[in-house]
Design a protein that fits this description.
This protein folds into 3 domains: about 1-155, ANL, N-terminal domain (Rossmann fold, 3-Layer(aba) Sandwich); about 165-370, ANL, N-terminal domain (Rossmann fold), CATH 3.40.50.12780; about 375-470, GMP Synthetase, Chain A, domain 3 (2-Layer Sandwich). About 30% of the residues lie in helices and about 25% in strands. The protein contains 14 helices and 25 strands. Helix 1 packs antiparallel against helix 2, helix 2 packs across helix 3 and helix 10 (about 230-240) packs across helix 11. The longest helix is centred in the N-terminal third of the chain and has 17 residues, at about 25-40. The chain is globular. The two termini are about 45 Å apart. Its EC number is 6.2.1.3. It is a peripheral membrane protein. It comes from Actinokineospora bangkokensis. Pathway: Lipid metabolism; fatty acid beta-oxidation.
Length: about 475
């Protein structure tokens, strides 16, 4: 990344608040911050938390912390206080902030002060291969977030900033990132890595504040951004009723949760051939991605550098077309959960990552997802996965989004409770959904109740948080 900034020279690589900042200027910020960190005792293996926004200074601070070999813990704005305390307790020696520091935090290093430190030479990466480079916390949608450890060796093996290693779908995506919108915080693994991809592709990073779509695309003449499934559904509905001029838009990368085939096809119809459907995890980085020409509802063909196996409950590989649990190996995958050997042993096993996602590979190698192993309902003592229920309900023409949860039931122990975001304001009747699900999946999975909602509750990561629906 330092080489890419040096090569950019006077070319603007970052826009923020009306400023255009060149590659040379961002690179010139890295040296002082690195010197300031070293003066504060930060070096290889030191834990540093980053509570920063989306600015060129924040981007430089992340690069500087990696240059000195620190172990980074990014903290997203909006996390609950107990999650912030949890992350600051992960052997963190200092926290770098560009605004207010959280109460009770470790020693605070203010970014403005670090930027004012005299540089002691050009930044030279000091990270040691086996050291942990970053702790990326999971979304917390299943409870307290886990901190996934990625080593400097894993980050070195990543293809993001190395164009010769880009898989075909990324070679298609990269030229579309000319003016790539970022928002929220660069502490987000997704935001940071697509920002570095944009810069490696010769584009620029544009900070969107506020990040509302489609307004931010129009205002910043953006060519690309990352979007969650709920926000994509809202954008498609908005474009149908009150279309904005999105003629500059060339790529929307859908991230965070699976995109059903019907909604995927609708997004391509309304927005054009700009939808990329990415599949990855905090533990693995990108696993696979569907481009605009790939089958809707799929996540494309995994690239050659990624190994995907579909296994049954006994751990045996299953034939193409058979649904099972996905195990993957990626060049830049994590190695463990920090301080959690029990969870680490369950997920990181024999060089593979147990994703706990369900899916199948078809005869052409296209990967399709079908749910989570622990997202289940137990009806009359029989275990059923809820992912297929959501996909069937989402096919109803009056449903924009569908979520299914297990609810207590006097007759069957548990039953399906469906929550739907209505399309065009009309919610389908319970009888219609019961008939649809019964015909496709059987009566045991037919919902016993349906609740219309304006939008799903969201975790701080922006992903739908189904745990909150029954409340």
């Amino acid at each position: 990344m330092l080489d890419a900034l040096a090569a950019a020279g006077d070319r603007p690589v970052f826009e923020h608040g009306g400023r255009e900042v060149s590659g040379a200027r961002v690179l010139a910020m890295v040296g002082p911050v690195a010197a300031g960190l070293r003066a504060a005792g930060v070096g290889p293996g030191t834990g540093v938390a980053l509570l920063l926004g989306v600015t060129p200074e924040a981007f430089a601070a992340i690069l500087a912390a990696h240059a000195v070999g620190a172990r980074l813990v990014g903290i997203r704005p909006g996390l609950p206080p107990d999650q912030v305390r949890h992350l600051l307790g992960l052997d963190v020696a200092a926290v770098v902030v560009d605004a207010d520091a959280p109460p009770g935090s470790p020693p605070v290093l203010r970014l403005d002060d670090l930027l004012a430190t005299p540089a002691d030479g050009p930044p030279e990466p000091a990270g040691r291969a086996a050291d942990v480079a970053r702790l990326v916390h999971t979304s917390g949608s299943t409870g307290m977030p886990k901190a996934c450890a990625h080593t400097y060796a894993a980050m070195t093996d990543a293809w993001t900033t190395r164009p010769p290693l880009w898989p075909p779908v990324i070679r298609d995506l990269a030229p579309r990132l000319g003016r790539h919108l970022v928002f929220g915080t660069l502490a987000s693994q997704v935001m940071f890595e697509y920002a570095t991809l944009a810069l490696a592709a010769g584009g620029r990073v544009v900070a969107a504040d506020p990040p509302a779509l489609p307004e931010a695309v129009v205002r910043h003449r953006a060519t690309s951004s990352v979007i969650t499934v709920p926000k994509l559904a809202a954008l498609v509905a908005r474009q149908r009723s009150d279309p904005a001029d999105l003629s500059t838009l060339r790529a929307l990368v859908v991230s965070g949760s699976p995109l059903g085939a019907a909604r995927h096809a609708e997004a391509l119809e309304v927005l054009g051939p700009v939808v990329f459907h990415g599949y990855g995890q905090t533990e693995t980085g990108m696993i696979s991605m569907a481009g605009p020409a790939d089958p809707p509802g799929s996540v494309g063909v995994p690239p050659p550098a990624v190994d995907v196996r579909v296994r049954d409950a006994t751990g045996r590989d299953v034939p193409p077309g058979t649904t099972g649990q996905l195990f993957v190996r990626t060049p830049a995958q994590g190695s463990a959960y920090w301080g959690d050997p029990e969870q680490s042993a369950e997920v990181f096993t024999g060089g593979w990552v147990r994703t706990r996602d369900l899916g199948h590979l078809d005869a052409d190698g296209v990967l399709r997802l079908s749910g989570r192993t622990r997202d289940v309902v137990i009806v009359n003592a029989n275990l059923h996965h809820l992912g297929p229920v959501e996909r069937v309900i989402a096919e109803h023409p009056d449903v924009a989004e569908a979520y299914a949860v297990a609810a207590p039931d006097d007759a069957t122990g548990e039953a399906v409770h469906a929550f739907v975001v209505p399309a065009a304001g009309r919610a389908p009747a319970l009888a219609e959904l019961r008939a649809l699900v019964t015909a496709r999946l059987g009566a045991a999975l037919a919902p016993v109740r349906v609740t219309a909602i304006d939008h799903p509750p969201l975790a701080p990561s922006g992903k739908p948080d189904k745990r909150l629906l029954p409340r």
